[in-house]
Each structure stands twice: as structure tokens, then as C-alpha cells.
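Q: What residues go here?
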């Protein structure tokens, strides 16, 4: 099999490309990555030795294809080849194809059994599909008809079928790859035409040519096969279509369940007295308007004599901007959830773009211009490049570019950010809102958003929907001339707004608003009810939190307590450990919000993927997840451990606080921790400081060793909490951060489920409770299994609480136990998921 090597300055980029490529060919093609350098402060770069090792790891006499990004990647690849024996050098080919598209085309061709020269040709033609679909170029006839007779037996008759594409996204990357891989298995020549778009015939065994067909859901295809096995080939392809290329109803139903209500994203004609716009966020708002004028920073270019100082000034502003965006990200995670807050990850990546930074530096040093002018110039260039793209979704990323650009300019100029303080609830009227602006809005004060620009798929609109703020975008600019306090009404579902609406309009909207609010209230009230199965079993639903703000969101979402307080947030992003008083204040504040609900505080769990910069390990750990982390770290840092235990004990007075020890692998560790806890209790007693002497102590079960001796551990502690995130990777011996094996790290694998079952049985035999606080707890697909296994408590992120409670209420323990019996007999996580989707989601 031909080997593929991806060489990139960015390790994250290369790993992402490899993951996508591997999915497309189900891991059939060996793919190696040589990307980034081992420098924590500047990880972007390439290393010839790393490239050499990658080539050697996938070397085959059939050949190795190396794809690269720009700059030193090519030099590193050329140098790496020189390290190889001369006989091997001839079989390694450097390819100038685009990194992402070229890799996708190459792996599909390699999986189809093409030789190295055909694989190279497919990689080189990778941009043809995109260019043709965007109308940048027309498909040359020579590319369409090239070698079409390669597998054709002219004496064989041609068979033809016509099929309608029914899967949700048409022949996008992975279905197209399946189509090509299937076509390539047969001797017959396969030709395909998109009848709906009236395209030319293309080869069915070419990923580039199939992709150029632009096949979408509902399109009709004509597929012709000529050769001795034509009937078999067409039958195999027809089976792919019948099975929706593996994209079953479960996936589509999930999409429907999790997506926001359908919105009218088009501008609708207005009747008399109305303003029409784009429906961007559903809901009704009736309130006075308040104008918001975003601060746009204008800059002046001037000559500088000290470019070094100017460059340092720009770097300082970028560093502060990075900190600000990280703060926005943290706050947005609490308000709108991690998935939507990831919008701000893109802004952080923008600030770290080496091409952009190098361009700004070059302008400063070569043209001797000020930092503001250099920065504005490169930001404008990037924004322009986005605006000229054909893809409307990518065009809208201009908002993020401008948002980041203005933030850095503000910091360079020492300007204070524009603020919005509303005395009374209002509808915000403005030209546009940046993602950062929108994330800062308080839904209690901003009842609606009305802008003269924007789109329903912009990041700002996504945030508004998640915050539950009705929004109508793209209305006529006359709205900007309204006086503050003018009464406005808007309907974010239909995309209409009314200025000083007449009474009958207000009555209709008020009725719709009441119905909307009643539905929302019903959902919230359900979330605050206990989670009880149909046959009367109550399961506690707690929250996983990592800050004071988190606990407020958790309680509002219906949490019955906190099953996991991650205390690491107190220790990270600082230069020294938090004091006892600092910790005490936080623990007390969280317990106060919980109002006597249970609070399980996990002691410091650093190491692995969470190092503390001010506590150096002293040596690099080759396998940090198997290293000095969790309880091991704390037992070797008694000063830190005792300080935290003192703070937790002091906070326990008058509250339901419990201590939980992470990464326990032996009885010895538990006993050692309990001895230290006893010492701290004795010190507090001696000092006359109160604490809850009966405070319960539990452990995280996340190491296979803990499962194996769960009966012994249960005799030492008051409760278990199963951490399936770590348990899954340890059971499957697969690093969950490694894309090559990440598919193995699935907590629904029967091996992991049996570990969970064994832990629960040991706990209940010993008479102690057991919860689960890994991501699996929030997976609605897994809820019947977790109930059937007998868990007493589920702890999830606050946003998942209502859905988990609803799932529990729809189930019974009897049927859940039957489901578990079947799930434990499956041979893979994939089959467990297939079983669950069949049981829980009836066919469409």
C-alpha cells in the first residue's frame, strides 16, 4: 500500500487533515504526520528528522507521497529524503498539490489500489473539484475523458441506472470517497453524470471528478458501467445509495432534535407599517429602543525611527488581546456553552497566524511605519480575501477578522472599549454587532436586537440564538434615525419589526410572546423537577462546574447539586498557588449559591494535560497521562494538599460538602490521603476552627486498577464517582488527544461499560453510592445504559441537565436493564451506538 506523509508547520492542522483523510478511507491507507517543533513557546515549524521518521514509518516499495504546506516544509522534506538509502529515495515523491485537498484525493486513490503515479495525478488535480463548483474554471474535456477506456472491454455491453440522492448533504467528502472506493473495486469502467445540473460524464473512480459534480440531496444521477462485472458494480453502488452512504436516520434525527427552530433566513416583503429583515433568532420582543454605536478606530500612518520598539508595541497589544479574548471565551462558555464559545477559538488562532504576524513585522521594519498602520493593512488584506470568496459562510468570517483587528487597534491606542449599560430593558438598535459585543449582552436587559446588516449564519446571530435574544437583522437604515425610547416590536421568527406598532399588532405579538414564554417556562420548570423513571426510580442529576459563575448557571438549569467541582481553575493562569483564604472564599461562595445542595469538591487534579507552570516537574514526561498527576502529585506536594484540605474543611460548616480524590490507583493512596486529612482536622481542632467532622470522602474511579480492586476501595471511602473520560483511554490504551486512535476512546465500548458495571456492583455491595461524571453522562444515547447499570447519580455540564432529566423520565429501569444486557454483548462501541439508535429512534 502506498504511504502518505503530511508535512506542515502546524501540528494541529496536520493532525486534523490526517483524521479527516483516515475517516474517508476507514484507516486503509498508512498516513504519517511530521508537523510542528518541540518548542512550547513557538511550536510552529518543521523538522527534517521528524519528516525522515514519518517517511520511514509508512515506507513501502509501492511508493510514498509527501504533501507539504509552504516555506520550510518543502526544505525539510527535501533534506529528509537525503537521509534515506539511495534505493528508497527513488520511491519517495514530493508533491506540490494543496495540502488538504491533495491529501484527501491521494488517500482515496491509494485506497482504490492506484499506483503512485496515478495517486500523484489525483492529488495534483485536487483543486479542480472546488474550482469547477465555484465557477472559477470550467472542466477541461481532456480531464473528463482522459483514460476513460482504461478498464473498458469494448465487447461488453453498457449498463446504466438512475438514482436520486437522498442523504442529507449529498455527495460531500466522505460519501464521495465511498462512491469512488466502491467504483474502483470493479474491472468495469464507471461513468457518472449529474442529470439535475446537466454536467458532463466523469470517471466514477476519480474523487476529484466525482466531487466536481456538486451532488446535493435530491439530485438525480446517471451511472453507467461498461465491462464484465458491470451488473455487480451497479448493484454495489445502488446499495450505497439505498443505505444513504451510512448516514442513517439516527444522524439526521439528532440534527433535527439539536438544531434551533427553523428560521426564515430570507428577507420577507413588509406590509404597510412594518420593517422587514432577516429572521436570525426566534422570539418576540416589545420594548423601547436604545441605540448602540460601536467604536470604530481610525488610524493614521506615520514614519517611525525605531521599528524594534514598534514591533514590541504590537506584540504587547496582541498578547493583551489574546488574554481578553480568552476571558471572553471563558465567560461565553458559561453563558452559551463550549460549542458556541469555540467561535472565539478562531479569533485566538487569528492572533497566532504566523503569516499575518510576519506580514505586519515586515511592514514595520521595511517601511518604517507605525504598528497601527501595519496591523490595519494586514487585517484589511485578510478581510478582503474573505470577502472575495464565493462561499457565503466563509465571507461572514470577516466579522471575526474585523472584531480581532479592532481589539488590537484599541489596545495600541489605549482606548477604553465601548460599554453598554442599560437602565431599563430595551431593544438594541445598531448597524451591526461583533461576536464579542454579542457575547457581552445581558438577556435580562437586551430583550431584542435590530441591526441594519448581518446574516442569520453569522457568529453574532449564533450567539444571540444561544442567549435566547430575539433578533431581526438587515432592516432598512431608517431605523438608525429613531429616537431612543421609541417603542418597537420585533418577531425574530418571521424577521419583521414594527416601529410604534398599532394596538392590534401589539395584541397579536403579545399573545405570541405569552405562548413562547409559557413554553420556555414549562421547559425550565421540568428541569427543576426530580428525574424519576416511569417505574418510580429517582436518579440524582448534578452538575460539573469549574467556577463560581458555573454554579449559578447550574442551579438555574435544574442541578440538584454539584457532582464535580474542578478546583484546577483556582491554580491555573497564575504565577503562584492560591492561598487558603482565597480558596475558602470561593468554596463558601459556591456552597452558598447551592443553598444546602450537595457539593463534591475534587482535590487538585493537575499533571497530564494540565501542568502548573510554577511547579515544574523537573524533567519531561514521555507519557504525562501515565505520569505524575492527580493524587500522586498532591501526595508529593503536602503543602499544597494540606492548604486545600484546610480550605475545604473550613468551608464545610453548614453545607453539604464532600471531598473527592482523583486518579486513585491503590488502597495505599487512599489511606495516605486520609491520614493527611486527619492531620489537618487535628490541626483545625487544636486551633479551635470549626468544620464538618462527618464530611464524606470519595474517590474518582478512572484507572483500571481502581476497578479491579473496587471492593477494597469501597471499604475505605463513602462514595465512588466514575470518570469515563480517563477510564476510556486507559481501558482502551488509547490517547484521547491522538487522532490516529481517538476513535477507540469511546465510553460506550463494551469493555468500558463492563468496567463501569463492575465498579457499580462493588460499590452497591459495600453499601456506598456511585455516580458518573464523565462526558458519557450527558450523552442521551447512553442514558438507558447508565440507568440499567444502576448508577445513583449523573453529573453533567449545566446545559445538558434538562435534556438528561427528560431522557430519564421517558425510561423505566426494567427496560433499561434489558438494554444493558444486550449492549454488553456487543463487540464494539459502533455496534452499541447502532443498537441504541435502533431502540431509541424509530425509523423515519
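A:
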Amino acid at each position: 500500500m502506498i504511504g502518505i506523509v503530511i508535512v506542515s508547520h502546524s501540528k494541529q492542522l496536520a493532525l486534523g487533515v490526517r483524521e479527516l483523510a483516515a475517516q474517508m478511507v476507514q484507516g486503509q491507507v498508512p498516513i504519517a504526520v511530521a508537523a510542528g517543533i518541540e518548542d512550547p513557546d513557538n511550536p510552529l515549524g518543521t523538522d527534517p528528522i521528524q519528516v525522515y521518521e514519518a517517511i520511514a514509518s509508512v515506507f513501502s516499495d509501492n511508493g510514498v507521497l509527501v504533501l507539504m504546506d509552504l516555506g520550510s516544509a518543502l526544505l525539510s522534506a527535501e533534506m529528509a529524503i537525503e537521509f534515506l538509502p539511495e534505493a528508497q529515495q527513488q520511491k519517495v515523491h514530493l508533491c506540490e498539490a494543496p495540502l488538504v485537498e491533495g491529501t484527501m484525493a491521494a488517500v482515496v486513490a491509494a485506497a482504490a489500489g492506484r499506483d503512485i503515479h496515478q495517486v500523484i495525478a489525483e492529488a495534483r488535480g485536487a483543486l479542480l473539484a472546488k474550482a469547477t463548483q465555484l465557477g472559477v474554471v470550467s472542466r477541461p474535456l481532456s480531464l473528463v475523458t482522459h483514460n476513460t477506456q482504461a478498464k473498458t472491454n469494448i465487447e461488453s455491453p453498457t449498463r446504466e441506472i438512475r438514482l436520486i440522492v437522498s442523504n442529507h448533504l449529498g455527495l460531500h467528502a466522505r460519501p464521495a470517497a465511498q462512491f469512488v472506493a466502491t467504483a474502483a473495486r470493479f474491472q468495469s469502467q464507471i461513468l457518472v453524470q449529474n442529470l439535475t445540473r446537466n454536467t458532463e460524464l466523469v470517471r466514477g473512480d476519480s474523487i476529484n471528478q466525482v466531487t466536481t459534480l456538486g451532488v446535493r440531496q435530491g439530485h438525480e444521477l446517471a451511472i453507467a458501467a461498461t465491462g464484465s462485472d458491470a451488473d455487480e458494480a451497479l448493484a454495489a453502488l445502488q446499495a450505497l445509495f439505498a443505505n444513504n452512504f451510512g448516514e442513517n436516520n439516527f444522524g439526521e434525527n439528532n440534527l433535527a432534535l439539536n438544531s434551533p427552530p427553523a428560521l426564515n433566513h430570507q428577507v420577507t416583503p413588509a406590509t404597510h407599517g412594518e420593517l422587514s429583515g432577516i429572521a436570525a433568532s426566534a422570539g418576540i420582543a416589545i420594548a423601547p429602543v436604545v441605540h448602540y454605536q460601536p467604536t470604530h478606530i481610525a488610524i493614521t500612518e506615520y514614519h517611525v525611527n525605531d521599528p524594534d520598539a514598534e514591533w514590541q508595541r504590537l506584540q504587547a497589544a496582541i498578547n493583551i488581546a489574546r488574554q481578553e479574548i480568552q476571558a471572553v471565551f471563558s465567560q461565553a462558555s458559561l453563558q452559551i456553552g463550549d460549542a458556541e464559545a469555540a467561535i472565539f477559538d478562531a479569533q485566538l488562532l487569528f492572533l497566532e497566524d504566523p503569516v499575518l504576524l510576519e506580514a505586519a513585522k515586515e511592514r514595520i521594519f521595511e517601511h518604517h511605519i507605525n504598528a497601527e498602520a501595519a496591523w490595519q493593512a494586514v487585517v484589511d488584506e485578510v478581510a478582503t480575501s474573505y470577502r472575495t470568496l464565493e462561499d457565503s459562510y466563509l465571507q461572514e468570517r470577516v466579522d471575526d477578522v474585523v472584531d480581532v483587528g479592532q481589539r488590537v487597534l484599541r489596545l495600541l491606542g489605549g482606548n477604553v472599549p465601548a460599554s453598554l449599560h442599560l437602565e431599563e430593558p430595551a431593544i438594541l438598535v445598531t448597524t451591526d454587532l461583533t461576536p464579542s459585543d454579542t457575547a457581552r449582552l445581558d438577556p435580562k436587559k437586551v430583550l431584542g436586537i435590530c441591526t441594519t446588516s448581518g446574516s442569520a449564519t453569522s457568529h453574532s446571530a449564533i450567539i444571540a440564538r444561544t442567549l435566547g435574544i430575539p433578533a431581526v437583522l438587515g432592516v432598512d437604515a431608517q431605523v438608525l434615525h429613531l429616537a431612543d425610547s421609541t417603542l418597537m416590536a420585533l418577531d425574530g421568527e418571521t424577521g419583521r419589526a414594527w416601529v410604534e406598532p398599532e394596538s392590534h399588532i401589539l395584541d397579536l405579538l403579545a399573545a405570541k410572546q405569552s405562548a413562547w414564554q409559557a413554553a420556555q417556562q414549562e421547559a425550565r420548570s421540568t428541569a427543576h423537577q426530580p428525574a424519576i423513571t416511569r417505574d418510580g426510580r429517582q436518579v440524582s442529576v448534578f452538575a460539573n462546574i469549574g467556577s463560581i459563575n458555573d454554579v449559578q448557571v447550574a442551579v438555574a438549569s435544574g442541578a440538584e447539586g454539584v457532582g464535580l467541582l474542578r478546583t484546577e481553575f483556582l491554580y491555573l493562569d497564575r504565577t503562584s498557588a492560591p492561598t487558603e483564604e482565597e480558596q475558602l472564599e470561593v468554596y463558601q461562595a459556591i456552597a452558598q449559591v447551592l443553598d444546602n445542595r450537595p457539593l463534591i469538591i475534587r482535590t487538585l487534579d493537575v499533571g497530564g494535560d494540565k501542568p502548573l507552570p510554577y511547579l515544574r516537574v523537573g524533567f519531561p514526561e514521555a507519557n504525562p497521562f501515565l505520569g505524575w498527576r492527580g493524587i500522586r502529585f498532591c501526595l508529593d506536594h503536602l503543602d499544597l494538599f494540606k492548604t486545600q484540605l484546610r480550605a475545604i474543611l473550613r468551608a464545610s460548616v453548614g453545607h453539604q460538602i464532600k471531598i473527592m480524590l482523583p486518579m486513585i490507583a491503590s488502597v495505599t493512596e487512599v489511606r495516605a490521603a486520609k491520614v493527611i486529612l486527619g492531620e489537618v482536622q487535628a490541626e483545625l481542632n487544636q486551633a479551635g476552627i470549626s468544620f464538618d467532622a462527618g464530611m464524606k470522602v470519595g474517590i474518582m474511579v478512572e484507572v483500571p486498577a481502581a476497578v479491579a480492586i473496587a471492593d477494597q476501595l469501597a471499604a475505605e471511602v463513602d462514595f465512588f464517582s466514575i470518570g469515563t473520560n480517563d477510564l476510556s483511554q486507559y481501558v482502551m490504551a488509547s490517547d484521547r488527544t491522538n487522532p490516529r486512535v481517538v476513535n477507540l476512546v469511546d465510553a460506550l465500548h463494551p469493555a468500558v461499560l463492563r468496567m463501569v458495571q463492575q465498579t457499580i456492583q462493588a460499590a452497591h455491595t459495600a453499601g456506598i453510592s456511585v455516580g458518573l461524571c464523565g462526558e458519557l453522562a450527558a450523552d442521551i444515547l447512553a442514558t438507558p445504559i447508565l440507568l440499567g447499570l444502576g448508577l445513583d447519580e449523573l453529573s453533567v455540564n449545566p446545559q445538558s441537565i434538562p435534556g438528561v432529566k427528560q431522557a430519564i423520565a421517558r425510561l423505566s429501569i426494567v427496560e433499561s436493564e434489558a438494554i444493558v444486557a444486550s449492549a454488553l454483548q456487543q463487540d464494539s462501541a459502533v455496534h452499541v451506538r447502532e443498537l441504541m439508535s435502533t431502540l431509541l429512534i424509530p425509523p423515519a
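A: Context that may help when evaluating the design: Residues 137-154, 248-272, 390-394 have pLDDT under 50 and may be disordered. Residues 196 and 463 are 36 Å apart (CA to CA).
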